[in-house]
Design brief:
heterodimer; A: about 240 residues; alpha/beta; 6-stranded mixed sheet; 10 strands; about 25% strand; B: about 300 residues; mainly alpha; ABC transporter involved in vitamin B12 uptake, BtuC; two-stranded antiparallel sheet; 12 helices; about 0% strand; binds adenosine-5'-diphosphate; binds magnesium ion
Chain lengths: ~240, ~300
Amino acid sequence: MALLEIRDIHTYYGAIHALRGVTMSVEEGEIVTLIGSNGAGKSTTLRTISGLLRPRQGEIHLRGKRIDGLRPHEIVELGVCQSPEGRRVFARMTVHENLEMGAFSRREKVPTADYDRVYDLFPRLRERTAQRAGTLSGGEQQMLAIGRALMSAPKVLLLDEPSMGLAPILVEQIFTIIKTINESGTTVLLVEQNALMALGIANRGYILQSGEIVLTDTAAVLAGNEAVQRAYLGGD
Amino acid sequence: MEQILQTIIIGLSNGLIFALVALGYTLVYGIIELINFAHGDLFMLGSFIAFVLISSVFVITADTPLTLMVAQIALIIAITMIATAAINLSIERVAYKPLRNAPKLAPLISAIGMSFVLQNIALLIFGPANKSVNAILPSVNILSAVGITGVTISAEQVFVAIVTIPLLIALTWFVNKTRQGRAMRATAQDPDTAGLMGVNVDRTIAITFLIGGALAGAAGVVQILYNNTSVWNLGFRFGLNAFTSAVLGGIGNLQGAVLGALVLGLINAFSDRYLAANWTNAIVFAVLIGILVFKPTGLLGQQLADRA
Ligand SMILES: Nc1ncnc2c1ncn2[C@@H]1O[C@H](COP(=O)(O)OP(=O)(O)O)[C@@H](O)[C@H]1O
Ligand SMILES: [Mg+2]
C-alpha cells in the first residue's frame, strides 16, 4: 500500500478547473518529484493534499485512510506537513518560535533533540534563534520553512519549490539537505520547476501539464527523456 | 492645575473602558481583517444585561453590605462576560463565517447589518429612552482618605481600574504565553500557513470572537456602574472612540489599542471639560480621519495584522 495515494483529483478555483484528474502515489521512503512549468497546478496539488483546497472529485489516501475532506490541521496531525511556496515563515516570530509553531500539531512535549536536529541540519538557523524570521535572508527563510515543517515529525514532507529565488550554490545545499532528510527516514514529495536538480535526488517523478499528469517514470528515465529535456531541462 | 489633574483622572477612567472595547476591534481585525462594526453595539448590550442584573435580578442598592455587593458585582461581571461572549460567537457563526472566502466588502456589510440588528434588539426590549441604575458604589474620595485635597479619585474610578487592568494583563498573558495565544498570533500573520502547522483556524477565530465579546461585556458592566446609565445607541459613541483608539494605536496591535484608548479617554475628558461635550464626537472623528490620512499604521504599527 502506498504511503500517500492521490486518485483522480479535480480541484477548482471558482470556475477555473485547475486540476483535471491528477493521479499519483508516493511510497514509503521515496523522494518523488512533481515537475511542471509555472501554472501547471503543482501548488494546487500540494494545497489539495494539505486540505487548504477541497477536491471536487477524487480521493486522497494516507496509508489507506482517506484524508480528502479533512481540514488542514487534521491532516498535519496525521503526518503530512507542507513547506509552502514562497516560504511563508511567520515574519514577526523569532526563528525558534517558528520552529515551535512547526511542532504545534504535536500534543506531547517536544524533545529538545528535535530542535537540535533541525539546528544541526541548518547551522545558520542556530546562530539566529532569537532573530525575527522576517529579517532573515531568502535562503535562511527557506531553511526555516523546511525546518519548521520537519518539527511536526512528518511521515510525508511536502516541499513546494524550495529552490525558488535562491542563488545556485544555496540551491545545491538545499537539495543535499533534502536528500539527508530523506535518508534519515522521511518520505518527500518535492515540487519543483528546477527539474534537473529535482530529478537528480528523486527516485521517481511525475510531469504535470495544465492540471494533468502527462508522464511518469523513474527519475533516471525522465532525466533522459528527450521531451522532458526539451521542455524542462533547458536542453535542446 | 488641580482641574487639569482631575480631568486627567476622568480621562484615564474613560480610557480604560474604551480599552476593553478597543481590544475587541483590534483582536478581530488582527485575525480576519474585519472591522466589526457590531462590536460597539455588543458592548451596549453588555451594559443592558448588567442593567437588568443590577436592577431586577440581584437588586443591588447603595445599602447592600459591601462584601455582598462585591460578590454580586463579581457575579454580574462573570454572567455578562459569558453572555456577550456567547452572543459574539453566534454573530461570528451567522454573519461572518459563511462569508470567510467572499470579497472583503461582504463581511463588512454584514457587520453593519449586525450593528443595526443589535441596536434594534435593545430598542425593542428597553425602548428609546435612557435606562438608569442608582449609583450603588460608595461615593467616597479615595484621596481625601490619605489627606490629599483638591483632586478626587472616586470609588467608581478605582472600580474601573480594578476590573479593567487585570483583564488587560490577563489578555496579554493569554496571547503571548499560551498555546491558544500562539495559534492566534500565527493565524493573524498567515491563516493558511497556521493551518498547515496544525492550528485549527476556524476554532481560533471563534475563540478570538469569544474573548473580544467577553471583554466588551466586562466593559458594559463597568460602564453602567461608572456612568449609571445606558441607551440603545450607546454603542455608537463608545464604538467610535474604541475604534479610533484601535486605529490610533495601530489596528491589530494590542498594546497600541490600550495606549490609543487612554489617549482617546483624555481627548474626551479635555474636550468635555474645556470645549463642549457636544463637540467631542466631532473631535474624535477628526482624530480618526487625521490618523487615517497622515499615519494609517497608527502609533505603534499594525503588529498582529501585517502579513509577510
Ligand atoms: N487563488 C487562485 N485563484 C484562481 N486561480 C488560481 C489561484 N491559484 C492558482 N490559480 C490557477 O490555477 C492554476 C495552477 O496554479 P498553481 O497550482 O499555482 O501552479 P504551479 O504551482 O504549478 O505554478 C494556474 O492556472 C493558476 O492561474
Ligand atoms: Mg506553485
